[in-house]
Amino acid sequence: MSKEIPSYVVILCKDCNFYFGKHNKSNFNCPRCGIFQKNPQIFSRVEDSNTLHSLVSELNIPEELRDDFKNLNDNLERSTSVENLIDLIPLILRDVPNSRGELNLFDLNEFLKKKNIKFDARKIIEVCEIEGLLIRLAEGKWKKISESL
Ligand SMILES: [Zn+2]
């Protein structure tokens, strides 16, 4: 009814068993494996982004998260460490999105180039999605979930 209140659903991806949050305007592609969920399995509905963030973090198995971080580290060992990425994400979320809190891959790549950071923009987005910081609006376009970041 009200446009002010964001509502999110938590979806379980049937292809990779990953829980992800979905804004009512974003699509049903799993942020982890990218597969479109034809008959999305809605696990839960939440009204605010903080609840969404903690619920998604809780549902996804920490071991898998560690694997993701490990793979990320292996791929990027000669450029920047994961510790740097964790420091980098708040900076990216502060500087890259526009006034509506939206960002796209092009802007992120420009930011990385300007700062001479050799991270794969898609990997950064992936980590932000897993951490519940960004939500996909469309292909190549994301929105910050928490306005306080
Ligand atoms: Zn999936």
Q: Number of domains in the coordinates?
A: 1
Radius of gyration: 15 Å
Order of helices and strands: EEEHHHEHHEE
- The helix fraction, in percent, is 25-40%
Q: For the residues shown, what is the average pLDDT?
A: 80
Protein architecture, described:
This protein has helices at residues 49-59, 62-75, 82-95, 105-114, 121-130, and strands at residues 8-12, 19-23, 41-46, 102-104, 134-138, 141-144. It has one domain. With 149 residues, it is α+β, with helices and mostly antiparallel strands.
Q: Could you give a short description of this structure?
A:
The protein has helices at 49-59, 62-75, 82-95, 105-114, 121-130, and strands at residues 8-12, 19-23, 41-46, 102-104, 134-138, 141-144. It has 149 residues and is α+β, with helices and mostly antiparallel strands. It has one domain.
How are the SSEs ordered, and which strands pair?
Layout: E1 8-12, E2 19-23, E3 41-46, H1 49-59, H2 62-75, H3 82-95, E4 102-104, H4 105-114, H5 121-130, E5 134-138, E6 141-144
Antiparallel strand pairs: 1-2, 1-3, 4-6, 5-6
The structure holds zinc ion (ZN).
What tags apply to this protein structure?
single chain; 149 residues; alpha+beta; three-stranded antiparallel beta sheet; 5 helices; 40% helix; binds zinc ion
